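Reading a protein record of the kind used here takes only a little practice. To see the layout at work, look at the sequence and tokens printed below.
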Amino acid sequence: MEFRYLGNSGLKISEITYGNWLTHGSQVENEVAAQCVQAALDEGISTFDTADVYANTAAETVLGEALKGERRESLEIFTKVYWPTGPGGKNDTGLSRKHIMESINGSLTRLQTDYVDLYQAHRFDTETPLEETMQAFADVVRQGKALYIGVSEWTADQIRAGVELARDLNVQLISSQPQYSMLWRVIEDEVVPTCSELGVSQIVWSPIAQGVLTGKYLPGQPLPEGSRATDEKGGADFIKRFLRDDVLTRVQQLKPIADDAGLTLAQLAVAWVLQNDNVASALVGASRPEQVSENVKAAGVKLDADAMAAIDDVLGETVERDPGKTAENAPRTRVV
């Protein structure tokens, strides 16, 4: 396993972060989830990412139990706040001081830890003053409940405003967690340059495009049984944008590039996002322990310029690059 600094900080995290969105507390049994976490630890992964909203808090509980007994100082545990949790009451969502303060306490209890290494705003809250949000995050840090703060799916302008307020409050906003893959490159034109300037790193989710870049979805063929595309608990909603025949056909054409690099298509996809200097880590989930072992082989891989150019040539116009997609996909009002 290779390690990289997270933003302009002294914190090092593993190039592959184990994430439990859509799996723990939902798609897989707790025993299998624990096996996946153990596989991650065995492969040298030290960084684990979750959120209070995943399986309505159950994912945090499963992760906390799976990591119990591990040396806390050797781990980096990340979680997030924004989306509705609990019964979904009027203050059970957003980035108000009330919701942040209550949420961090709940997360720490479920994760069985005194602090998280990174506490992230899961989305931008248009209905709470940013000053209130950042002051609450700063207080969470000063209370020792989080070491650093980050954001997820914020626009470049929102990140800049957040970093400026964080600096005024003498706390470190060091990360952004956006969707990023060969097929979804909307952060490249605005978010990445802004973050590079400000000393903020990317921890990217869905580097395999919800599984599409594994090559298991074939053009004109039925969806594989038990795959994410058939998961009615939420997985199918996220993957459908990529399940077009033109995309699936081009993904199949990536196989010779992966073969030349000695990689599977999934490993090629993870290695590709790690070529970006502003990316500190790629988030990878798993429903089986062996998936973890396969994905970590992308750590430390260097793709040459010819391979990177060949990938661009194959994918062509199927790549989504519009930076406006970040704001377009963000909630305009709080979801309750």
The first helix runs from residue 30 to 42.
